[in-house]
Specification:
This protein has ten helices and seven strands. By secondary structure, the chain is an alpha/beta fold. It has one domain. The radius of gyration is 20 Å and the shape is globular.
Amino acid sequence: MKYKSDKQKDFIEGKRKTITDAIITQLETVSGDDWKKSWFSRGGIPLNAITKKAYKGINWLYLSTLNYKYSHFAGYKQWTEAGYEVAKGVKSHPVVLAQQLDNKKKPKANGTFEKFWMQKWFNVFNCQQLTDESFERYTNKITKENSKVILERDDLVENFISNCKINTSFVDGDRCCYIPSLDKVEMQPIETFESITAYYSVLMHEYTHATKSKERVNRLPNDKHNARERYAFEELVAELGAVYTMQTLGFYNVEPREDHVQYIKSWLQALKNDTDYIFQASTQSNKAVSWMLDQQPKDMQELVKKVQSI
C-alpha cells in the first residue's frame, strides 16, 4: 500500500498491528491438546448497535476476538446521539472502512475515471463500555426487541445451503473435502458428527472452498506463496468463512476443525511477519460469504438480517 506521508504510514500500520496482534493472541490460545477451544468470543456476530448492520471482513474478525458478552459496537458520536453515555477512560477499538473512489485526475476515454481504494479508520466502543445506567437501558431495549423474533434456525440453514446450489454428496468415511476438478463437495454421513452445529460448520468450510471456482468468486492463489503457504492460506480463508457464515446464520459457538491445528503455527508465523496477511485472508473469506448470501432470495436475506440482530 502506498502512503502519502510517514505520518499516515505510522497511523495506518499502527491500527493494522493492533488488529493483527489481537488475532495472534487468540490463535496462540489454541493448542494440539485443546483444539476445540473457541477462537473468538461468542457474543454473537459483531453489529453496529445503532444501524443494526453487521460488521464485515477484517472488522468482523477483529471485533469477534474481543471478550464481550454482547457484540454490539458504535462510535462515540453514534452512542451519544442515540442517548447513551460512554464511560470515561475506556479504550476504543479501531475499525476500517475501505471505499473505492473515482480518481478525478485520471479520466478514461469512456467518460468514467480510474478507481482507487481509500481507507478510513474509525473508533468504536462496545455497549459494555457504556456507563452502568446507559448499559442497563440499552440491554433492556435489545432484550425487548429480540423477544419478538422467533426463528427456526435449522430450517434457515437448510434453505441457505439449498440456495447456494453447490453440488454436494455424502460418502462413507471420515473425510470432507471440495474437489475442484468435479466442482463438488463431499461430506461424511451427517450422523457421524457430534452435533448439527459441527456438521453445518464443516459444510460451510467446504462451501467456502467451493467459492474459489471461476464460476463463483474466482479466488486465485497468491504467486508470492509457495505451495504449502498457498494451501495454509486457503485453509485460513475457508476457516474464517465457516465461522463468519455460521455466525451470520445465528450459530455462535463454532469450533475450529481438528485438522487445522497443524496450520495454526504457519498462520501465526505469517501474521507476525506480515500485518497484511490477515487482511488479505479476511477479504477473501468475506467475498466468499458475500457470494453465498447473494444466492439467497430477498425474503431469505431479510431473515438472515433478523438472525444477525439477535
